[in-house]
């Protein structure tokens, strides 16, 4: 197991190294920086270039950048003079993480519940309603859903703050908007798994022991159908990262998603590069954690892992 | 009990039984595809979705030549007009908002109607939505194309060759999928200009990964089956085996996965345009329309609602059709 | 008469399908006596599994009990509430399943799984339940039970897993044990061990067994009495000797002929021709008639009633009707009749 994790971490570092290098060279391929605008006098341009280390040979810039990354230094923002990328990210990551974690919890828990109920009451109206709900959840883009939530619940009915980041109540609507896709996907996945499990021989054996329907579900069916759910946490993390870009914009939340979109529109390359690497780190770490977690909670994998 | 039943002698005449007859299969046999199509036709939701998509596609294509108005023509005098359907005097489609006939107050000439109203630059919403739908369908078509070419062949080669080739190809996939596809698009955007090209390139680079994975897994399974082994023993070439034996057996996986790729791709384009890094202005896309609509949602909700309805209907129809196809081609998946 | 512990009377069960009701069980009646082993033999789809599942109250959702009663301890199982059924299952009546590879929860340690029925039906502490689990596991032949309580099913072999399944079934000393093809999924050598184990346990905990199988060969080793099922009906029943050496129904003959024995000198394996009838629309007369080389006109028109052969033996075939013609028996059945006659020569006279 330890050997496996170490191997995976090694591969993760290699992936990140490649991502960082590709990002760096693509940025350098670009025709210009915000500073070689013809309106800026040449002398000024030279000063700016020097300040950002752009006058050095390419390989020197690359080495500097990579060394910087290792030390957690992603350079300085072009847009906000004097602010380092790391600082910018550190001030903005809080709301994004909070939203992401809240949405993931809400999405998986409700999704598991919905999928389980649909499977237990398979082919009844409960199942039909849950299935319709899940498919609609998959079909409404989160930015549309976010806008509709904002319009009805905040603007028309005044139940929640319309936008901005001010305490827990302002995080409810963005969390709901963000949780929709993971919820729908989890529910669908859970239903399939649970239907499978409920048809399995060991569930019949559990019933033959004299367990009631709820005991069967609670003691055997839930755990067995929830183990594979872990595998969709990775794709779910991607959904949440993407979703945060639009949801943070709709609700004007000062998170990294909003910052990312802003940096793209202002060509703030160091911030874009930093955030690209950050997103890749988050995604690869989530995938690694999920794989390790899967090995821990599924006894079949856990023990065969020990044997190797 | 039994003994008091009276029976005549002819009751005990021996009868010949023809067992060979019974072993014939009674029902006409259907091929796998026929059977799947039959199951699909029983799925009402999928069938309706299919026809809805056909209608949307036909309308979107035909209106290339018969557009109700120029989608990019601005009439600053006609900003934010509500919908008006000819002379109909029905609320919401009579050109009246809050008791004021805006068509009259804005001096719109008689005979000019905007069926879905106008946007903040006085552009005809209907024409713009049609353009946006076309863009979405085009993206859907492209995503399918990349899935079928890159995805299928990558998967087959990786699964079929095995060994080092497979290991390297799988590592490549792992790297691609550990970079969020948004990041890929943004890198594309920075290198090229924002627009259709970068979106297409991004989809070309990332969209086929799931397909490649599924096809590889299935190929690995098929590879060890007798009919493939037989074909190999008989000395058929690799490409011939791929086309004659592998692809027909992979077809249900391929069809189902393609159908799941489409809504993802449509969403992705709309998403990029929505955050302003997709199609550049003034080209309409469902994403840009939604983004424009979002800005004025509180005053003119219809400008968000109409494009929202179209994108939801598109996504819903593709999702339902995909579910239907999956159930039809893989009946085990739902009705166990 | 020894006392009857379970009595199934006129049981009829339908399954609702899109094509209409499938008449899976058509008028099945039998008694189970205390301490005996009754084998129910039949091919797949003959209704033997459905019969035992109805005793457990574990029928699929689309099933419908048309008529009949299953009397156990003076009460009709078919009339029990869910709660009463749960109290009975795993306590008074327990079941052993066919495939040990899939019938244990893959994510729960086996100690917990074996102790579960005890914890469900008695107010015993967890610790004591686990201690009892160890005792029962040893009884079924898992010798290192103490160390293996925390192990998961995949760490055991198929034979061991079936022993665990048996341990789960017997931990509450049930009065009736329903074994649904418990040896079918196992290797032949393991089959013999499991049969031996079941007999041993039956003596130790004094239980009655209903043993379902499609394999007459297995029956000889375990059963006291045999009931043969075909197309949702019992068509013949009797003691093991009566069925093996004095069978009366042509279907039973077919089963006996299809069973390879050391004595037979033919080098071809016999198979009953044709396929079982469609129970959506069961035939009017004897369901076996279309496959029966001895079929008569009456077989196609009227269902044969049971003809009593001896107090313990009856068969539903018109061949036993007093006026029916004598038929030429297949060689294998003739050979068996001769053994029967020599064994019970006194009775014959």
The total strand number of chain C stands at: 12
Average pLDDT reading of chain C = 87
Largest sheet of chain B: 2 strands, antiparallel
Number of strands of chain B: 2
* First-residue to last-residue Cα separation of chain C: 25 Å
- CATH homologous superfamily name of the domain at 125-329 in chain B? MetI-like
Through-space gap between termini of chain B: 46 Å
Low-confidence stretches of chain B: none
Could you give the order of the helices and strands of chain B? HHHEEHHHHHHHHHH
Organism (chain A): Schleiferilactobacillus perolens DSM 12744
Membrane topology (chain A): Multi-pass membrane protein
GO biological process, one term (chain A): transmembrane transport
InterPro entries (chain A): BPD_transp_1_N, MetI-like, MetI-like_sf
Descriptive notes:
The complex is a heterotrimer of chains A (308), B (336) and C (349). Chain A is mainly α and 308 residues long. Chain A has a domain at 88-255: MetI-like (MetI-like fold, Orthogonal Bundle), CATH 1.10.3720. Chain A has 13 helices and no strands. Chain A has helices at residues 2-29, 42-51, 58-70, 85-120, 125-139, 142-156, 169-198, 201-208, 213-226, 233-250, 256-265, 269-297, 299-307. Chain B is an all-alpha fold and 336 residues long. Chain B has a domain at 125-329: MetI-like (MetI-like fold, Orthogonal Bundle). Helix content of chain B is 62%, strand content 1%. Chain B has helices at 19-22, 32-42, 44-62, 102-105, 125-161, 163-177, 181-191, 196-206, 209-223, 226-233, 238-274, 286-295, 302-329, and strands spanning 96-97, 100-101. A two-stranded antiparallel ribbon of chain B has the order 1-2. In chain B, helix 2 (32-42) packs across helix 13, helix 5 runs parallel beside helix 13 (302-329) and helix 11 packs parallel to helix 12 (286-295). The longest helix of chain B has 37 residues, at 125-161. The model of chain B has no long low-confidence stretch (mean pLDDT 79). Chain C is of the alpha/beta class and 349 residues long. Chain C folds into two domains: 4-223, Rossmann fold (3-Layer(aba) Sandwich), CATH 3.40.50.300; 227-348, P-loop containing nucleotide triphosphate hydrolases (Rossmann fold). Chain C contains 13 helices and twelve strands. Chain C has helices spanning 48-56, 82-88, 110-121, 126-139, 145-148, 158-170, 188-205, 216-222, 240-245, 250-257, 297-301, 331-343, 345-348; strands at residues 4-17, 20-33, 37-41, 63-72, 75-76, 93-96, 176-180, 208-213, 225-230, 233-239, 307-310, 313-315. The longest helix of chain C has 18 residues, at 188-205. Chain C is globular, with a radius of gyration of 21 Å. Chain C: It is found in: Cell membrane. Chain C: Keywords: ATP-binding, Cell membrane, Membrane, Nucleotide-binding, Transport. Chain C: This is ABC-type dipeptide oligopeptide nickel transport system, ATPase component. Chain C: It is a peripheral membrane protein. Chain C: Belongs to the ABC transporter superfamily.
């Amino acid at each position: 197991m330890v050997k496996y994790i170490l191997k995976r971490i090694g591969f993760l570092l290699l992936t990140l190294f490649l991502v960082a290098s590709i990002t760096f060279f693509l940025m350098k391929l670009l025709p210009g920086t915000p500073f070689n605008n013809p309106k800026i006098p040449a002398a000024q341009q030279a000063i700016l270039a020097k300040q950002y280390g752009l006058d050095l040979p390419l390989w020197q810039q690359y080495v500097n950048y990579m060394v910087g990354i290792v030390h957690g230094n992603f350079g300085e923002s072009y847009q906000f003079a004097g602010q380092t990328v790391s600082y910018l990210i550190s001030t903005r990551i809080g709301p994004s993480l909070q939203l992401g974690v809240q949405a993931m919890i809400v999405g998986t828990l409700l999704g598991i519940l919905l999928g389980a109920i649909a499977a237990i009451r398979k082919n009844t109206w409960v199942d039909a309603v849950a299935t319709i709900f899940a498919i609609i959840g998959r079909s409404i883009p989160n930015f549309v859903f976010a806008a509709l939530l904002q319009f009805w619940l905040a603007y028309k009915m005044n139940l929640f703050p319309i936008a901005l980041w001010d305490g827990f109540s302002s995080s409810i609507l963005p969390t709901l908007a963000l949780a929709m896709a993971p919820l729908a996907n989890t529910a669908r996945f859970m239903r399939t798994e649970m239907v499978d499990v409920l048809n399995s021989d060991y569930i019949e054996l559990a019933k033959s022991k004299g367990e009631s329907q709820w005991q069967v579900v609670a003691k055997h069916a839930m755990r067995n159908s929830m183990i594979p759910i872990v595998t969709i946490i990775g794709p779910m993390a991607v959904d949440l990262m993407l979703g945060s870009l639009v949801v943070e914009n709709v609700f004007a939340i000062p998170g990294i998603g909003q910052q990312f979109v802003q940096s793209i529109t202002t060509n703030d390359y160091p911030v874009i590069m930093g955030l690209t690497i950050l997103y890749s780190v988050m995604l690869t770490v989530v995938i690694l954690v999920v794989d390790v977690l899967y090995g821990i909670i599924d006894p079949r994998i856990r023990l065969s892992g020990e044997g190797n | 009990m039994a003994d008091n039943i009276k029976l005549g002698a002819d009751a005990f005449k021996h009868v010949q039984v023809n067992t060979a007859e019974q072993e014939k299969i009674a029902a006409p046999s259907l091929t796998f595809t026929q059977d799947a199509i039959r199951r699909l036709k029983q799925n009402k939701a999928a069938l309706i979705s299919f026809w809805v998509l056909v209608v949307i596609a036909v309308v979107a294509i035909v209106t290339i030549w018969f557009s109700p108005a120029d989608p990019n023509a601005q009439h600053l005098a006609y900003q934010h007009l509500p919908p008006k359907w000819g002379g109909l005097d029905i609320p919401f489609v009579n050109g009246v908002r809050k008791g004021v006939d805006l068509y009259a107050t804005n001096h719109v000439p008689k005979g000019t109607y905007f069926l879905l109203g106008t946007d903040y630059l006085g552009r005809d919403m209907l024409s713009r939505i049609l353009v946006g739908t076309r863009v979405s369908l085009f993206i859907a078509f492209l995503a399918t194309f990349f899935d079928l070419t890159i995805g299928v062949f990558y998967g087959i080669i990786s699964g079929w060759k095995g060994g080092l080739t497979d290991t390297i190809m799988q590592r490549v996939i792992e790297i691609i999928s550990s970079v969020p596809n948004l990041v890929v698009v943004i890198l594309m955007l920075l290198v090229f200009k924002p627009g259709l090209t970068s979106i297409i390139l991004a989809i070309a680079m990332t969209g086929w990964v799931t397909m490649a994975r599924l096809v590889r897994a299935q190929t690995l399974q098929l590879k060890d089956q007798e009919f493939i082994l037989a074909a190999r023993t008989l000395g058929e070439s690799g490409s011939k085996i791929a086309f004659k034996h592998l692809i027909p057996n992979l077809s249900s996986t391929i069809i189902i996965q393609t159908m799941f790729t489409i809504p993802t791709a449509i969403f992705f384009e709309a998403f990029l345009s929505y955050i302003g890094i997709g199609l550049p202005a003034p080209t309409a896309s469902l994403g840009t329309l939604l983004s424009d609509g979002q800005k004025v949602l509180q005053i003119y909700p219809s400008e968000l609602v109409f494009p929202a309805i179209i994108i939801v209907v598109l996504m819903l129809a593709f999702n339902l059709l995909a579910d239907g196809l999956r159930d039809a081609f893989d009946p085990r998946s739902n009705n166990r | 008469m020894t006392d009857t512990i379970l009595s199934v009377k006129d049981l009829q069960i339908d399954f609702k399908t899109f094509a209409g009701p499938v008449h899976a069980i058509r008028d099945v009646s039998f008694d189970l006596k205390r301490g005996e082993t009754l084998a129910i033999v039949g091919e797949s789809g003959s209704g033997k599994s459905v019969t035992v599942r109805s005793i457990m109250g574990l029928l699929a959702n689309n099933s419908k009990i048309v008529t009949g009663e299953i009397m156990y301890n003076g009460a009709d199982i078919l009339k029990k509430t869910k709660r009463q059924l749960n109290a009975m299952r795993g306590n008074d009546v327990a079941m052993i399943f066919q495939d040990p590879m899939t019938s244990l929860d893959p994510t729960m340690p086996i100690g917990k799984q074996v102790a579960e029925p005890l914890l469900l039906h008695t107010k015993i502490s967890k610790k004591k339940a686990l201690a009892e689990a160890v005792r029962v596991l040893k009884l079924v032949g898992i010798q290192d039970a103490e160390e293996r309580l925390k192990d998961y099913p995949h760490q055991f072999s198929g034979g061991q897993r079936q022993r665990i399944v048996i341990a789960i079934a017997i931990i509450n000393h049930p009065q009736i044990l329903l074994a649904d093809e418990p040896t079918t999924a196992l290797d032949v050598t393991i089959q013999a061990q499991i049969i031996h184990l079941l007999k041993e346990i039956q003596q130790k905990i004094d239980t009655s067994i209903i043993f379902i199988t499609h394999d007459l060969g297995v029956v000889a080793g375990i059963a006291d009495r045999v009931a043969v099922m075909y197309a949702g009906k019992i068509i013949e029943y009797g003691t093991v000797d009566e069925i093996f050496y004095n069978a009366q129904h042509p279907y039973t003959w077919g089963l006996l002929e299809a069973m390879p024995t050391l004595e037979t000198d033919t080098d071809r394996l016999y198979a009953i021709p044709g396929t079982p009838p469609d129970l959506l629309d069961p035939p009017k007369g004897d369901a076996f008639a279309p496959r029966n080389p001895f079929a008569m006109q009456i077989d196609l028109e009227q269902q044969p009633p049971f003809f009593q052969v001896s107090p313990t033996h009856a068969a539903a075939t018109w061949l036993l009707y007093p006026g029916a013609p004598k038929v030429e028996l297949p060689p294998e059945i003739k050979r068996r009749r001769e053994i029967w006659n020599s064994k019970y020569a006194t009775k014959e006279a």
